[in-house]
Design brief:
Number of strands: 5
Strand order of the largest sheet: 4-3-5
Number of helices: 6
Largest sheet: 3 strands, mixed
Strand content: 15-25%
Radius of gyration: 19 Å
Oligomer: single chain
Structural class: alpha+beta
Shape: globular
Order of helices and strands: HHHHEEEEHEH
Amino acid sequence: MKQNVKDSVREILTNYLELNNHRKTPERYAILDAVYRMEGHFTLEELGEKLSGEDNFPVSRATLYNTLKLFQELRLVIRHRFQGTTHYEACYDNNGHSHQVCTVCGKVSEIKSVEIGKAIANLKLKRFHKDGFALYIYGICSTCQAKITRQRKQQMKK
């Protein structure tokens, strides 16, 4: 994690906690640091494993869930629902991005598209200030498509 991002997200959390008379617990900061060291999308379980394994800082599932909920409110984390599973992603300093989701295997990959970003930026919305976006494109990945094609060819031979 870049130092300036780490400092910024910690400052956002600290300011919120102080303004709302909440405790500045080591768990909250450990979870925040772990979230911003994660690569891409992650599940609650993966975050818990990272904290208890690499960081030697185990926290309960309830603490993880409640803390991620707080981070969502602060716009430090975004929650995604991919085919029945919940994934999270650090989103500070990220105006938006697109995902392609395979409806067969569930694989999710990010798409970097200048055109989509420009289209969203130019989109005029009434009585609404946009500050980011997430776009999901559903389809079949090339690996699954190749498997389907092979299976069809085998069935036709029979």
